[in-house]
Amino acid sequence: MKVSYHGHSVVKVETATQTILFDPFISGNEACDLNADTIKADVILLTHGHNDHVGDTFEIAKRSNALVVAPNELAEYLGNKGLRTHPMHIGGKHTFEFGQVKFTQAFHGSAYTQEDGSTVYTGMPAGILLTIDGKTIYHVGDTGLFSDLKLIGEMNDIDIAFVPIGDNFTMGPEDALVAAKWINAKTTVPVHYNTFPVIEQNPDTFAEKVSVGEGKAMKIGDVVKL
């Protein structure tokens, strides 16, 4: 299984038979090396409904007939737009053909801004635990620091965790280092930084300070094999 990072919070997971995308914000994301017009996915996992996370879900899912797994209200909104969805919610898990998905809490917001400028509430934000062939990926989602991250780390053997460090909209590097310690992943990767001026951070400095497991500042397109 190959896990790659593509800027902001975009993560791609490739198994022998499936391509899975987390939060595919590609168009308008200058850091992303993917092409929204050509990339195909079997599954799209969404942490919440903000436009910089839903991203190109509509286009990719319609072209690829991808299954979109998302918090209930967001899944309902996307389903009403014609996408194939599976709604879930915090604390719930489900075993799919491609692996097991469990949604965890995250402290943030969740609303989608439509082309006409109107905003649609899309339910609670979340983190996502994805387990495939005994390997667990934790996409923490957009969140501030909260103490149940320690419980999540104790309850799950996490191989790689993607943790936001940008500050302003999510936790910053200092809080993210505490989160990394609590999550206790074998590898911690910083995400959600440098996309906009207000969230500029140094991922290498963060990675060097990770005190549990390995801190890894993945460059755009970098791949980790699990």
TrEMBL record:
Organism lineage string: Bacteria, Bacillati, Bacillota, Bacilli, Bacillales
Gene Ontology molecular functions: hydrolase activity
HAMAP family hit by this protein: UPF0173 (MF_00457)
Signal sequence, renumbered to the chain: none
Domain of life: Bacteria
Pfam family of the protein (one): Lactamase_B_2
Keyword Hydrolase: yes
This protein's name: UPF0173 metal-dependent hydrolase BN988_00059
Residues annotated as domain Metallo-beta-lactamase: 7-192
Native source species: Oceanobacillus picturae
Record flagged with keyword Hydrolase: yes
Keywords: Hydrolase
Family note: Belongs to the UPF0173 family.
